[in-house]
Amino acid sequence: MRKKIDCRDQPSEMNCTLVIAGEEEEVLRAATEHAVSVHGHQDSPELREQIRTAMKDEVPQHA
């Protein structure tokens, strides 16, 4: 099942609206890079675990 993470679900002074969706490892990698480059976090095992915990299952959208 695909996963997603939505910056709007995280406390932020930036009011970031980015949503990242894909396979779990893809989302983890992209969200970690985003957290470091945009939000100024340090890449660490703790950050990656927080991101993994915040991921949700993506609900398929049918047309």
Supply database-style keywords.
alpha+beta; 3 strands; DUF1059; DUF1059 domain-containing protein
How would you concisely characterize the structure shown here?
By secondary structure, the chain is an alpha+beta fold.
Structure overview:
With 63 residues, this protein is α+β, with helices and mostly antiparallel strands. It has one domain. Helices cover 38% and strands 16% of the residues. The protein has 2 helices and 3 strands. The chain has a 3-stranded antiparallel β-sheet, covered by helices on one side. α1 crosses α2. The protein is globular and about 40 Å long. The model has no long low-confidence stretch (mean pLDDT 93).
Number of domains: 1
Largest pleated sheet: 3 strands, antiparallel
Rounded radius of gyration (Å): 12 Å
Shape: globular
The residue-averaged pLDDT reads 93
Strand order of the main beta sheet, please? 2-1-3
N-end to C-end Cα span: 19 Å
Q: Structural class, please?
A: alpha+beta
Helical proportion? 25-40%
Q: Total number of helical segments? A: 2
Tell how many strands the DSSP assignment holds. 3
Q: What letter string, H or E per element, gives the SSE order?
A: EEHHE
Give the DSSP E fraction (strand runs of 2 or more residues): 15-25%
Low-confidence stretches: none
